[in-house]
Input
Amino acid sequence: MQKSLAPLLEDAQEIVGLRQNQLQDNIVASIYSTAEQIAGEVVSHTSPKRRDLDRQIDNILTSPIWGFPIMFGVLAVVFWVTIVGANIPSSLLATELFWIEARLTDLFMALNAPGWLHGFLVLGVYRSLAWVVSVMLPPMAIFFPLFTLLEDLGYLPRVAFNLDRFFKKAGAHGKQALTMSMGFGCNAAGIIACRIIESPRERLIATLTNNFVPCNGRFPTLIALVSIFIAGSVSLSLSSIVATLAVAGLVVFGIAVTLAISWLLSITILRGEPSSFTLELPPYRRPLVGQVLVRSVLDRTIFVLRRAVIIAAPAGGLIWILANATVDGASLLSTLAGWLDTPARFMGLDGFILLAFILGLPANEIVLPILIMSYVCGGAMTELASLADLRHLLVEQHGWTWLTALCTMIFSLCHWPCGTTLFTIQREQRSRRWTLLAALIPTAVGVVVCIFINNLVRLLDLV
Amino acid sequence: MGLTYQSTGQSTTREIFNALADHCDYAIALAGNPNTGKSTVFNALTGLRQHTGNWPGKTVQRAEGSYIYKSHRFRLIDLPGTYSLLSNSADEEVARDFICFARPDATIVVVDATCLERNLNLALQVMEITGRVVICVNLIDEARRKKIRIDIDKLGKRLGVPVVATAARSGEGMPRLKELVSDVASKRVQTKLQPVRYSQEVENAIARLEPRVQAIVGNSINSRWLTLRLLDGDTRLVHTMENYLNTGETVSVMPVVQEGLV
Output
């Protein structure tokens, strides 16, 4: 027999009559007053001051005057600590790992191993792994815990609060500030976080623009390039400060692009009014520093590094093969790079750089290692033992200028999302069209900005 | 910065209600307001590492995990953090439908010790649906620091369900929580609910309608709660309820992240 509640619903309406809204309020009010009564019976405060302290801190951190300088300051301190702290372990790791490479070569020689095996395994696979570890590991191991501390402290909702009005003006949802912050960790995680935005239109805007903030795969690339180019060009005491400002500036640029593209989307293909929401500012909590260190090193650093290593090892081998397989006297690698060279130069890059971005599609972490690999494999086989040698390789042998570095960093900030992120977008939106657009929009922005900057600088004769 | 195995890995969407019976002795739901440390409690119980962070609405993926206590396997389902169960949003509906239809053996309601009053609203609403509740007063370390004292025994007597104070971050109170959950789930401890008393007008309406509601739904659904929702005019719930009563099925689906799925 079919059970039906419909007659009961009718009866209920009859009983309640026209006062349904009043009755709903009545029910809610009873629950609230019961909760209030119980809480009153069991809770006793001995000091009411604490809550006020939180409010006072909030008033400063989210004030119209101090909110932004503090935000920029916090960002700058985090980058400064990362850049300064990562420098020494980076060179130490590079020295150690390349010493091991030399010993591996000795071993292969002693065993009379064929040249191609040594080339593929040592100069291809091992060397790219060494670059990934020495360039990527130190910045990650410092940046992750710092960011996690800020998150545990409760600073992120305050950032969202500060940025809310900008996102509103851009026609987007204020919570996009939170999903954007998640993007600093990993864009794929940022895309998933977009679920907290209820309206599909605003969620789509947040999804399509998440890639404009650098994820942990791209931060070390930016930091390494900044360190290499700034460290050599200004005096040592200033270099870390200038490098910090450069990275912070790039991040601000990324946020500005996020807002601009959100605004463009909301007046074109995704028109609509921003919906309102309430953002709760949670109490500040003292982070458990030890736990944060362990968790962020184990969960995040090792995880990201593992992903980079898994992808970098085969990529390194592939590049060695491309660099050593010749067709008509030229290696496949230089032929491929040659095809890309003309458009790349127009954007202030070169063929190898563009090729590295393309080959880096599976994971952004490996773009810089791939680039180094293709430079090293393609040219004379220089032994690179330190970051200073790396600077030599880029500047002296491949004609990099500060403009090349700048365009590379901007393109790193604005190009197609990595494979994992694209996969996540497809899964969340279930639409090929939006996934394609999520790749096309940042790429178009990157190409246009790079072309503009490159030609402007050259026109003004600044290089 | 939610970079964890779960957030970057593949997740599956499936009918969660059918999943309850799989390889576990008891199914336990985890409910609570946003930002009360629900994920931390989840991690402390299961040993999993769901991403945690100090901001509301952080848990966007529902997590499921399990733990073993005294040789019984407990399956723990992390519900969306909500302020109420009055189905104002999709999240509230998911949480409510799960507690109502999936009928977990026990529901842990995590409340924030530093703002108990606001958090009790949800706890009271959960206790209208099911009596098999354990209240977990979390962030008790935070409350102590802020010089807030909570009389746990009195709270337990007042609500009629077991209450435990925890600081999930440091693991304080977690063994006791497991013990209480096991007691409630295995019905070793009978809870004695003190239902919310409504105004005379509402109580009269309940008295008129409830016997007829009970005649239809029997003992499978709390008739007082359903009567209130009928008086509320919650047509969506009525629809889902009819479906459940007639076919034993519900329509709600929520995405689940499975243990060990990378």
Notes: The longest strand of chain B covers residues 62-69. Residues 28 and 76 of chain B are 5 Å apart (CA to CA). Residues 200-217 of chain B form the longest helix (18 residues). Confidence is low (pLDDT under 50) at residues 1-21, 251-262 of chain B.
